[in-house]
Amino acid sequence: MPPALVDDLRARGFVPPDYEGGGLLAVPATVLDAFGVRTPDDPPPLRDLDPALLDGVRQIIVVVADGLGWWQLEALCANGAMPFVARLVARARQRDHAQLIEATSVFPSTTAAALTTLHTARTPQEHGNIAYFCWVPEFRQVTQMLRWGRAQDRRGSYFDDASRDPRRYVRVPSIHGRLRERGVVTYVVEPEMFRNEAMTRMHSSEATYLGYILPSTLGVRVRELLEDRPHGGAPAYVYAYWSGVDATSHMYGPMSREAAEEAAVLDLNLRRALGDRAPGDTLVILTADHGHATTDPDKLIDLVDDRELAPLLRNPMAGEPRLAFIHTDHAALARDQLEERWPGAFTFFARDDAIDAGLFGRGDATAARERVGDLCAMLDRDRGAAIVRVGGELVRHRGSHGGMTAEEMRIPILAFRA
User: Most exposed residue of 115, 168, 207, 251, measured as fewest CB within 10 angstroms of its CB?
Assistant: First the structure.
């Protein structure tokens, strides 16, 4: 990364992404590497992972706890909400077939970007699912990038029209297809409602989909795969996703009782699926796509109804509640207007500077230049911004992400044998 922008961000207390073996990108790279599928074009695997944890591995299970950042995991283990995970952390400290690594999310620190990275082993710049809301020129609309539908709508996808094939819009291949080609059986364990979502159809269609109606079934599905081994003697990769910590953190705050209760349910689920198993030929990696910053909904910055900013926009606002993408031909005017109205609230940087600094990743920057605004306005502390009205309403969260604070960027990678 060119030092100027990155050094400036670090000096302000921000945590830039690590795409060189110390971040979320290295998790799928490690999966590819463990099964002998990684090529020189792939990113490096986890640089600090103990090689002994990979010895003799035949199965890898990656459990993604959406929104369970490093600081939340520490607090939830300390306050007793996650006793099983706390015991795993203690094992990691003793190097007892376990290891805890502090890593970074991708940037922006958001689900759409991070989960696509996990499914492809590619950076947001390469795969193009850069933020939750992106201006997508092919549809001339701000698009919600998980379901690929109009941002202002709560439901619906462009691909509900059967004549539109979501695979036409895929920029990079999935790791599931690559693993399958080399004899590794892959599974995706996710809510049943996601089975036909755009994200699934675009980036994990080659995997066997095991859906669940209630979150408590996630552990049942994982345990069945461990015990029954429907893939026989073939090596296997399992991706399992838990959404509740993120949802409760958004609604009630990352340190709320509600978020702690949801984390406790996840902990029980993991214990029942994995807790009575001696170290064997399975590597389990518990991680998160991002963390959460505590935000005050009463301090929401409404950019949607900003009448002075609107005439400066070339396309509608997009991005994240903590990272606004401002598509404008008048970046200096837009910056001055926002700074005058909300002095000191935003950290500004140009899209092209962010690309040059490698903040969005590596490789072809075509999607980033199309989908990221000319000016990026990033928030920290307890502030969030409204950038889109969803269902006619402004979104007011008590927990937010997408920015670059330590709370949003630092994630755990807890690896252990089972």
Answer: 168
Which tens digit of pLDDT belongs to each residue from 262-312?
Answer: 999 999 999 999 987 788 999 999 999 999 999 999 999 999 999 999 999
From CA 78, how far away is CA 250, in angstroms rounded? 22
Instruction: Give 326's strand partners.
Output: 375
Task: Map tokens 């109804």 to a residue.
Answer: 305
Contact 386, 316 (CB under 8 A): no
What is the distance between the alpha carbons of residues 377 and 385, in angstroms, rounded to a whole number? 10
Q: Count H helices, E strands: the chain?
A: 15, 18
At 1, is the pLDDT very low, low, confident or very high (cuts 50, 70, 90)?
very low
> Which residue has tokens 């699934």?
200
94 alpha-carbon distance from chain centroid? 29
Tokens for 194, please give them.
């996601």
pLDDT digits (tens, 9 = 90+) for 149-193: 999 999 999 999 999 999 999 999 999 999 999 999 999 999 999
Nearest to 226 by CA among 418, 38, 13, 37: 418
> Exposed/middle/buried for 191, CB within 10 Å: 0-12, 13-18, 19+?
middle
The Cα–Cα gap between 375 and 353 comes to 10
163-167, 282-286, 350-354, 359-363: lowest mean pLDDT where? 163-167
The answer to whether the beta carbons of residues 62 and 285 sit under 8 Å apart is yes
CA–centroid distance for 37 within its chain: 23
What DSSP string describes 153-209? -SS--GGGSTT--GGGG--S--HHHHHHHTT-EEEEEEEGGGTTSHHHHHHSTTSEE
Q: How far is CA 112 from the centre of its chain?
A: 6
* One-letter amino acid for residue 151 of the chain: A
Helix then strand then coil, in percent of the chain rounded to 5, is 35, 20, 45
Q: What is the mean pLDDT of residues 332-338?
A: 97
The mean predicted confidence, pLDDT, of the chain is 96
Environment class of 36 (CB within 10 Å of its CB; exposed 0-12, middle 13-18, buried 19+): exposed
Instruction: Output the pLDDT for position 122.
Output: 98
- Enter the pTM of the model: 0.97
**Torsion over CA: 65, 120, 114, 90 (sign):** positive
